[in-house]
Amino acid sequence: MEKILVGILIVYSGFNLLSLQMKNLHNISLYVTLSAFLLSFFYGIFELFIKRNLLTIDNENEYEMQKTQVLSLEEDLANMKEQIEQLARLSSLGEVAGNMGHEINNQLAVIEGWADQLARAESNPKRATPEFVAKAGGKILAHIQRLHHLTSAIRNFVRKNNEAEYGYHDIRDIVKDAVDIARPKAKKNNVAVKSFFEGKEFSVRCMGVEISQVILNLLSNAVDAVCEQEKPWIQVRVIEKKSEFEISVTDSGDGIDPAIVQKMMSPYFTTKAPGKGTGIGLSISKNIIKSHSGRLEYDSQFKYTRFIITLPKDLPKKNKEENSVSG
Predict the structure, then answer these.
(1) Short-list 86, 143, 103, 108, CA closest to 22
(2) Strand runs (DSSP E) across 185-294, as ranges?
(3) Which H or E run includes 136?
(4) In this structure, are residues 138 and 118 in contact, taking their beta carbons and an 8 Å threshold?
(5) For residues 311 and 204, is the Cβ–Cβ distance under 8 A?
(6) Which CATH number applies to 166-322: 3.40.50.620, 3.30.70.1170, 3.90.1720.10, 3.30.565.10?
């Protein structure tokens, strides 16, 4: 029987290299976390030094003489704070990359499996029916599209803050990107994640990368909190209201200790084990939402553990003027 070549599929199998690279990410995350704590320590030292200088100034002339030095130290403080926040972002990125690498390997394994079946079918004409080829091709295409979606979501997340701009975004896309990035970690810990959207118009003026970062941080914390439950779950719900959006992240936990609630939004406070968190994720998230004239709150009255983001659909006039250059 004459064989007809109907196509060639080439699959690159780089699992070993990718796995090797992923092994180093845990060490990178630990290094970044340690660096953040060290920077926070020096930040505190600088702050105390400035306060001490100001307290020892007893007349206007002396104040003027030291004004330049104090302003310089304040600038150093601001720069150091920015570095701490960037390190926290890199730390979460290291964790994201590790989980993303695991998910990418899974997708590649499925693609390789179907490609292998196609290759074997080439030597067995009875098996290489149009239906089988169409099915295998469809499976491969679906997983390739999944890989494309994953890489697109992570590409949006890793943009530098100074490259992000205020603009009109679809809040559904922002949430979906954050969920897609968090899903590999959730899947690895057997945590079911679902999203719900209620409304008609979902356009919001914001810095999309930053809002995605906030939602991702809440999702990551939720996975850590419920991963040891028998049937853990997380729900992200977006509700359109008259002039704002309510974005809630709810997990199957039974709430947070009131003593912890009072401290959890404070910088450098964490209940996680060393190397598992910097303790500034919620603090940064709160500041990001505040800069958008919104609110990030913990709902202590709800049956489960729930955080609520209230985000205006449009920036107030003052915020528009401040961000007119980047908008």
Answers:
(1) 103
(2) 192-198, 203-207, 233-240, 244-251
(3) helix 130-157
(4) no
(5) yes
(6) 3.30.565.10
Q: Report how far apart the first and last C-alpha atoms of the chain are (Å, whole number).
A: 66
Residue 234 tokens read as 């997380």
Q: How would residue 141 be classed by pLDDT, with cut points 50, 70 and 90?
A: confident
Amino acid identity for residue 76 in this structure: D
Inform me whether the pLDDT recorded for 261 exceeds 90.
no
Domain boundaries, the chain: 1-158, 166-322
Q: Rounded CA gap, 60 and 62, in Å?
A: 6
Residue 312 bridge partners (DSSP): 244
Backbone angles phi, psi at 200, to 5 degrees: -120, -40
pLDDT in tens, 195-224: 999 999 999 999 888 898 899 889 988 998
79: Cβ contacts below 8 Å, ≥ 6 apart: none
Cβ(288)–Cβ(211) below 8 Å: yes
Whether the per-residue pLDDT at 9 is higher than 50: the answer is no
